[in-house]
């Protein structure tokens, strides 16, 4: 079942609302925004990782937080982090740990997202110099990035959301397909905003249609944000 929701309406749908946090930061609160680099053996390249902690994040408290992983973070991370923080302050969005997956800089992102967000190799008419690496990119997220985030922060391991737009939305749908096929089980929800489903003449859409109905029912309903 597909439900069409606004981006932040979908976050509320997935996680539920909660009361606005206290405006005063708790004692012992860590730096709110962290930037680091992680080398991926699966992709054989490094990624810039941007982490925005909830307004009330306190490593000394037992509360654990859902995690939203956003793709193409060089472009989208600051926008989404600011909006989530503002919505959370007034109780219109949940407090989440936002993890942005990006590249060294914007020009690098603009070229390498073709490599990481697509599968299989692009047909010749797209004239992509590199493509088809979504399987390796998903392996990086599943087996390298998520374990590191879980080890360093107070994460709710039952609530992990992947969010992507355009080619990033295509990759999000690719990750959903692997989940439905039992090849990937680290994520619990998917937000694909305007996914490029036309890639390779609707290859991914055709693959999703082949998934048996009983596997489609294995997960709670998936939302698709439209832009």
Proportion of helical residues: 25-40%
Classify the beta-strand content into a percent band. Answer: 15-25%
Instruction: Report how far apart the termini are.
Output: 19 Å
Q: How many E strands?
A: 8
What series of H and E elements makes up the topology? Answer: EHEEEHEHHEHEHHE
Parts with pLDDT < 50 across at least 5 consecutive residues: 1-6, 16-30, 219-227
What gyration radius follows from the Cα positions, in whole Å? 17 Å
**Number of DSSP helical runs:** 7
Largest β-sheet summary: 6 strands, mixed
Oligomeric composition of the shown chains:
single chain
Average pLDDT over all residues: 85
Structural class: alpha/beta
Overall geometry comes to globular
Biggest sheet: strands side by side, in what order?
2-3-5-4-6-7
Question: Any key phrases for this structure?
Answer:
single chain; 8 strands; 227 residues; 38% helix; alpha/beta; 7 helices; six-stranded mixed sheet; globular
Provide structural commentary.
There is one protein chain. Helix content is 38%, strand content 23%. It has 227 residues and is of the alpha/beta class. The protein has a 6-stranded mixed beta sheet, with helices on both faces. Strands 1-8 form a two-stranded parallel ribbon. Helix 3 packs parallel to helix 5 (167-180) and helix 5 (167-180) runs parallel beside helix 6. It is globular, with a radius of gyration of 17 Å. The two termini are 19 Å apart. Mean pLDDT is 85; it is low at 1-6, 16-30 and 219-227.
